Each structure stands twice: as C-alpha cells, then as structure tokens.
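Data card: per-record layout.
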Amino acid sequence: MSFSAAPVFAGFAFGLSLIVAIGAQNAFVLRQGIARAHVLPVVAVCALSDLVLIAAGVAGAGALLDAAPGLVTVAYWGGAAFLLAYALLSVRRAIRPAALVADAEGHAPHIWAAVVTALALTWLNPHVYLDTFVLLGSIASSYDTARLWFGAGAAAASIVWFVGLGYGARILRPVFAKPGAWRVLDGSIAAVMTALAVSLATQALAG
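The structure for this 207-residue chain is written out next.
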C-alpha cells in the first residue's frame, strides 16, 4: 500500500473536527494541564484509547463492507446524514456558544484517580462508539484501500489534540474561556462536516 497524502489530511481534519467539541473528557484534560498534575498519563490514556477505537472502527467497517459491497452506498448515505447532524449541532453551538472554563480545583490529585477518570470519560461515553465505529469507520471505507491512511490521519489528530490540550492548557485557558473562540471553532467544524457530507452524498449518487 503506497502512501497517499489526501486521505491522511482528510482523516486528520475529520478526526480533529470530532474531538475538539466541548466535552467532559476535554474539560478533564484541560484541568489536569492547568494544574500540571499527571498530564502525561492522562494524555497517554486518552490518545491511546482513541487509537484503539479508531483502528477498530476503520478495520471493522472496512471488513464488513468488503464482505457486503452493497452496504457501501448505505454507508455513504448514513455517513452523510451523521455528518449533517453534527454540522447542525455545531451551527447551534456556534449560535449559542459556551465557554469551557476549567480551574485547578477540578483536577485529580492522585495518578490512579487521574488515570481511572480518563478511562471512564473515554470508554463510558456512548458517543465515542458512534464517532469511531459508525461515523469514522463509514467515511474511512469510502477511501477503499487508502482507508488505513485516513485512519492514520485521524489517529494523528487525536495525538496532536490531546498533547496540545494537556501541555498547552495554560496558554489555551484564556482563549477558550471566551465564548467567541468556541463560536469560531464550532463554525469551522460545521464547515468541515458539511463539506465531507456533500462529498459522501456525491459518491453515493455516483455509485
């Protein structure tokens, strides 16, 4: 399998679009980063968990669609529908932005408490399975033999995000405490989601 840059960049953009939304996991990583408490294990747990989930989603969806080629069109339309739903939610958040405020008081002081909390916020979140197994896996399948590069891009986005969030927390705190910053971010997410949805719908119509 030869290297292809386009699927990597697409996977990176899509993975980043999914992961940067305001949520309990990001808030926890941000708190740990602000407090400078067990940042490395927390970032490692979140990133490695994402890598496992992304790999399972890409491999599982790919194998299923190889066994049943007729599901490809269904996957395209399903992926487009999910993407449009995410885009609409992002637009809603952009219209009514929230502020992600995390202070040093909310961090886990002990390493095992930090690790267990990070695991729980990742694996007990039902949305993570929708994102990785259904949404990301379906979109990755549209890249056929290059879907592994798409998954690699999404995995890279996860690593970059968690490392940046954990270790750049003190820099990011004043930025993301402002609703306007989230308005710009969510607006960008909506644009990416919509563009990918249109791409999938176009492939479904062409197929």
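Known properties of this structure: The chain has nine helices and no strands. The chain has a mean pLDDT of 81.

See the next section for split statistics.
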